[in-house]
Design goal:
Blueprint: H1 104-117, H2 119-158, H3 166-204, H4 211-215, H5 220-250, H6 254-278, H7 282-288, H8 293-303, H9 308-340, H10 349-386, H11 388-399
Amino acid sequence: MTSPHDDDPQPTWTAPGSTTPPPPPTPPVPPAPLPQAPVPPSAPDLTKPAAPPAWGNQPAWGNQPGWGNQPAWQGQPGWGAPPPASWRPPALQPGIIPLRPLSLGEILDGAFRAIRANPRVMFGLSALVVTIAVVIQSVLTWYAYGLISDALTDVLVDEGDIFVTGEGTGSLAAPLSQLASAPITSLVTTILTGWLIVSVSRSVLGQKVSPGEVLRNKRIWLVLGFTILLAVVVGVVSALVVGAVWLLASMDAAGLAVLVALVGGIALVVVGILVAVRTLLVAPALMLEGKGFRPTIARAWRLTRGSFWRLLGIYVLVTILIGIVSQIIVTPAAILSALVFSDPDGQSFASIVVLGVANIVALTLTTTYLSSVVALLYVDVRMRREGLDVELARAAQQAG
């Protein structure tokens, strides 16, 4: 059994009278070295004031990120981080479109917005003008149908055709009578397009124009004159091609006549598309710029330079869309008039009325939308080429 004093040094017992020397003394244990204090860094120079940290590099406080390192919130860049290269501030939009170059979707949507922004002009005035035009066209169609049908009957009877009937002459007279009255609708549509362009241009700035202001615009006669001039030029060129083909055919040069007809037809189509696109912005330029007739036409021609294919693609797309809408409205009316109001002697007055109502609705919708698209194309081209968006933004801020 051990005790707590077993490790202590025990005394040595010796007999009395013994001469045993005492044990040598135990050498002292040197003390352990004291720990050395760390060498402090060089003390700052307190005679000079320390520079404050920059705002964008503030240290974290309370486990929060510094001021200049704020995290992005809902996809937006942080407070102190620079915006990405593709980011730009939103454009001013006082009206139906943002004041910057437009995309296809913004043009198509802006046309609907233009109709909703001023329905009194875009729908009310359009419906009134189209109704008057269609009524005049229907009366002329009905009157021309009777004249053409009688003339065809007389010609066929004089030639000894014993199979001539009222239904046969009616099927020939109906399309000819509609073709004879078609210029009325074309001219009225041109005038209406010019008027509606004024309303769309005001809607871009968030303003409205009254029907009276639209009707008092005298520059509509310039648009009408340009349309008639262009139609005359196209008619003369087409007549020259047809005359050349007829002359070659009368000279027994059938192969050459076919070649001229083929080449001339293709050339007419190509040149017609080129002229139609390059003069697409003439109507809005004449209505909105207030300059002379010839300088405005030349300027509108130059505006389309570099934008030909874009204008052509958008115009063809919109034409296809409004054509589909027009057929959706007109085709059921034509089937109804043929089944219910058919006349064995030809086209009845009731069928003309039914087709006229359908044409009023279709022309009102298609003309309104197409004119809105043309006006927005004019604004878009000028914003891309001339910085019109800056002028429009300044005008909107001054008006506001």
